[in-house]
Amino acid sequence: MGIVAKRSSMTFYSDSFSHYSHRVRIVLAEKGVSVEIVASEESRPPRELADHNPYNSLPTLVDRDLDLYESKVMMEYLDERFPHPPLLPVYPVARAESRLYIYRIERDWCSLVDAILRTRSEKVVEKATRELRESLLSVAPIFTEKPFFMSEEFTLVDCCIAPLLWRLPSLGIEYRPTRQSRPLLNYMERLFNRESFQQSLSEQEREMHF
What 8-state DSSP symbol labels residue 90? Predict the structure, then answer.
């Protein structure tokens, strides 16, 4: 992974499979942050993680004396600490709208992905997969208006969506090129070809897409 680089005062404890960890890695790559990434799994966290996170959960970001263990907090912290390129709008109304988009993405899409990955019930998986496929397709028209999600610029909202879209084939969801799906497929291509996205991928994530 391109951002696993030099020794740094910043350490990121990352689950190589998790879309919540992946979104933060995209932000780190977008900002060009020098960070030490400790790859792990939720079921086998590093021993020292408990010193930084009372929930012993992933992802966790450690920056000197600061410990963060919620992905959205990490993303906004990184955007404020490393302001270029900005990944949230400047004006309060637009910033609030972006935060609301992320909230809806987590409620509407992340919850379905988590249900597919965590349940053993075939009925739950089938229902969640169908809902996710249809819901993503329903928003496809918005990508004919702007290159990114409701924006001319790449933002934290796209950082949250990209890991979900990358995982679709491994979840059994693929779209044939049709008039309805083409805007979504073009958006996916823009995201996946972005240098920061390619740098953010773990070995496991590269494998899951193919």
Answer: S
Residue 149 has pLDDT above 70, yes or no: yes
Higher model confidence: residue 5 or residue 57?
57
Residue 113, C-beta contacts closer than 8 angstroms, at least 6 positions apart: 19, 128, 132, 164, 167, 171
Residues in CB range of 172: below 8 A, 6 or more apart: 129
At residue 123, the pLDDT reads: 96
Q: Which two tokens stand for residue 137?
A: 């397709």
Written as six digits, the tokens of 38 are 């400790």
Nearest to 63 by CA among 86, 84, 91, 35: 35
State both tokens at 6.
């030099």
- DSSP single-letter state for residue 68: E
For 170-189, b/e burial (b = at least 16 CB within 10 A) is ebebebeeeeebebbbebbe
Distance, C-alpha 73 to centroid of its chain: 13
DSSP-derived secondary structure for 29-63: HHHT--BEEEEEBTTB--GGGGGT-TT--S-EEEE
pTM (whole model) above 0.85: yes
Quote the CA–CA distance of 141 and 186 in Å, as a whole number: 11
